[in-house]
Design a protein that fits this description.
globular, two-stranded antiparallel ribbon, 62% helix, five-stranded mixed β-sheet
């Protein structure tokens, strides 16, 4: 049976497209109306609203651009990226325009609901007019017996959902253990050409990515982690008054991915912002590996694309630290889409330029750190490309043989050009210097000044160069030391892969723009190890995670290059070399890498476990209902006096009262009088508080007895999960 492919609506004929959009909009409005009058169909409003917001505006923009026959994966990715861009711009415009018209709450349900419907209708009219001559064949999908791999892969996210539920309710991690084993088996199956055919690689990539994110993000009924608490506070600062105050001097307050996108999803889907962060943002963030897979596959092959993405998602930052950085999740999606557009030389130049500028703007207003790193890489990458074009003809033929392929223009049109860099830089400067009182621009300038002051005096100093401290620091156990060796080996593979690509570009067929940015990203990685305060501004693990967006495929290329070199040394020259054993060895290696990073191995042997999902004890920034209730009570009772919390509970309180919280000092006598002291469950059960000390760029933590902090203090609140003291 054949049906129209719903993920490629922009390729449908205009009449069918118009009717489908209106029917979908009718269903969406109907579900919302029924929900508002009290006739709730379970999850109907949430699902339809999510699909409407996430796909429809982008599909309409694609049709406006007359972009067709991109394929299911790319159409889906571009649709989501463009939809998010439209939503953020809609929220921004509403925040400025409606107050001038007398509507003082632009971020309220009815105003946004009606505005988005009008925006979609306007985009529909423009799209039909712009694409009125399109008459291509409608794309169809065949619903026939499929490989068993497809339904199996689809169950992986449900294992994550079930596993986190059982963990929270019964403190059992059996299903989460099973999930990690299944993901490891999928990685091996692809490497050994078993069970998972190449046609299922995109599904496998998305399913694995979403499962890994959900197996941590869905822990507890509240958000957990670090920065995300401040992000939630800023979202509530928009939802409560119904307007975004762009003057609040916080870096994150200038990020539309937080102050516009989350309120829009929350209001239209009727989900609490907590669940927007825990459910919807993972659905969006899991598209990043899919975009990377497609970008790598187009330049190499499907197997290298899958293994590169498996490496990327296996690194622990993807499903631990990134859970706490919603703004960076969205920004990374725009970076992946930028790369995908950058390498697509079949697209019209004007269309590609529009996409790259649009995604660049969206990146700027989504996360300042990622935008600055990307901008930092663009100028040297552009200089490398310009330099390569002025090399002698013989050298160009040696190192750029793809230029001579039949049917390929001798002089390729570069996508990474100076006007694009200048536009990106101008947008970043204007946005960061004006929004949030210029806090973002000032913060980055401060980091640059600190690096300049210490660059030559403190280079290689482990107290200021966080990457150096990690490399030279003593591992807690021999097994953790082995894991460090595995990590270093992956970076060695990346270096070999880049070297092999530069020497034999025709063998690996990596686009020159992609290769130039990759070389700069490798230098950024090196800077994270040696340059003082460079990596610590983001954290070394986050910096490495960001660079893997570009560098991950070179680890696979490096492994294959090493294998081919070894075989040539052993066998007689001239014999054909099969790379199948290389794929098998690499899949096994990265499965081991994954089991170390996920904490699976440490948990099995009980060797200093690291997994927030598998380890249910210990002090983590994961807070239960009683802790959240206690924090809310304290803020509602008294929000003006200082509130002292230890280093872990500090993040919980930051989501409620960022102005009044104070770190517990290492000496209890330094606590001021007429202040509050908040204890969470860990403090109560373990009679211990976490005290952090920072030296240069390195933070160390110690746990000390809690008794000294509560002497002569009165207990004014106790719900058996949190206690509040006052003196």
């Amino acid at each position: 049976m054949q049906l129209l492919n719903p993920l490629r609506m922009n390729d449908w004929n205009n009449r069918t497209f118009f009717l489908a959009v209106q029917a979908f909009q009718f269903l969406f409005i109907g579900a919302v109306a029924l929900d508002l009058v009290g006739y709730q169909i379970p999850v109907a409003r949430e699902v339809l609203a999510f699909l409407y917001l996430t796909f429809l505006p982008g599909v309409l923009v694609l049709k406006m651009l007359r972009l067709h026959n991109l394929g299911t994966v790319e159409t889906t990715l571009y649709s989501v990226g463009l939809s998010l861009g439209v939503l953020m711009l809609t929220g921004l415009a509403a925040n400025f325009i409606y107050p001038k018209l007398g509507y003082v709450r632009p971020f309220s349900f009815w105003i946004l609901f009606l505005t988005i419907i009008v925006v979609v209708q306007v985009l529909l009219v423009i799209a039909l007019v712009a694409d009125r001559r399109y008459a291509g064949p409608d794309p169809v999908v065949t619903y026939a017996p499929v490989t068993p791999a497809a339904p199996f892969l689809m169950t992986l996210p449900f294992f994550a959902i079930l596993g986190t539920y059982v963990r929270d309710e019964y403190h059992m991690v059996t299903f989460l253990f099973l999930l990690l084993v299944l993901i490891a088996l999928v990685g091996l199956a692809v490497g050994f050409d078993r069970f998972v055919p190449a046609s299922c690689y995109p599904l496998a990539v998305y399913a694995i990515a979403l499962s890994l994110i959900y197996h941590t993000s869905l822990i507890s009924g509240y958000i957990w982690g670090y920065d995300i608490h401040h992000e939630l506070n800023l979202v509530n600062n928009v939802l409560t008054p119904g307007i975004w105050d762009m003057t609040l001097p916080y870096n994150t307050n200038g990020m539309l991915s937080i102050v516009a996108l989350v309120p829009i999803y929350s209001l239209i889907t009727s989900l609490d912002p907590v669940w927007v962060f825990k459910i919807i943002y993972p659905l969006l963030f899991a598209l990043v590996p899919l975009g990377l897979y497609r970008a790598v596959e187009k330049q190499t092959n499907a197997k290298i694309g899958f293994l590169a993405v498996f490496f990327f998602v296996a690194f622990f930052t993807f499903y631990t630290e990134m859970i706490s950085l919603a703004r960076q999740q969205i920004a990374e999606l725009f970076l992946a889409l930028t790369l995908l557009a950058m390498i697509d030389k079949s697209m019209k130049q004007g269309t590609r330029a529009f996409l790259m500028v649009t995604f660049g703007f969206a990146m700027v207003v989504s996360h300042y750190g990622l935008a600055y790193i990307y901008l930092l890489s663009l100028v040297p990458a552009w200089l490398l490309l310009v330099f390569s074009e002025h090399l002698p003809a013989g050298i160009q033929k040696r190192f750029m043989p793809m230029q001579d392929e039949p049917g390929r223009p001798r002089k390729q049109i570069r996508t990474l050009v100076l006007p694009y860099i200048l536009i990106f830089a101008a947008v970043a400067y204007i946005w960061y210097s004006t929004v949030a009182e210029g806090a973002t621009f000032a913060a980055v300038a401060g980091i640059g000044e600190k690096i300049a002051e210490t660059l030559f005096a403190e280079t290689l100093d482990p107290t200021t160069a966080q990457g150096m401290q990690i490399l030279t620091g003593q591992s807690t156990t021999p097994l953790h030391g082995l894991a460090k060796i595995v990590h270093v080996a992956t970076q060695g593979l990346i270096a070999v892969g880049l070297f092999a690509t530069v020497l034999r570009p025709g063998r690996w067929r990596i686009e020159l723009e992609y290769l130039a940015v990759a070389l700069v990203f490798l230098l950024i990685n090196v800077a994270g190890i040696f340059v003082p305060f460079f990596a610590s501004s983001l954290n070394t693990s986050r910096l490495y995670h960001i660079t893997l967006i570009i560098l991950a495929p070179f680890a696979i290329i490096g492994g294959i290059a090493l294998y081919e070199t070894a075989v040539r040394l052993i066998r007689a020259p001239g014999r054909t070399i099969s790379v199948r054993p290389a794929y098998q060895a690499l899949s096994a290696f990265f499965v081991v890498f994954f089991l170390f990073n996920s904490g699976f191995i440490y948990q099995v042997v009980n060797d200093s476990p690291t997994s927030v999902a598998l380890e249910t004890t210990g002090d983590k920034p994961i807070f239960n209902d009683k802790e959240v209730t206690g924090a809310k009570w304290l803020i509602s009772a008294e929000a003006e006096r200082p509130i002292y919390v230890d280093a872990t509970r500090w993040w919980l309180m930051k989501g409620f009262s960022p102005k009044h919280q104070r770190y517990l000092p290492n000496n209890a006598s330094r606590i001021e009088s007429r202040t509050y002291l908040y204890f969470g469950t860990y403090n109560i059960v373990q009679d211990s508080v976490r005290i952090e000390l920072t030296e240069g760029a390195v933070t160390t933590a110690n746990y000390v007895d809690a008794g000294g902090y509560i002497k002569e203090r009165n207990r004014i609140y106790d719900n058996a999960g949190s206690i509040i003291y006052y003196r």
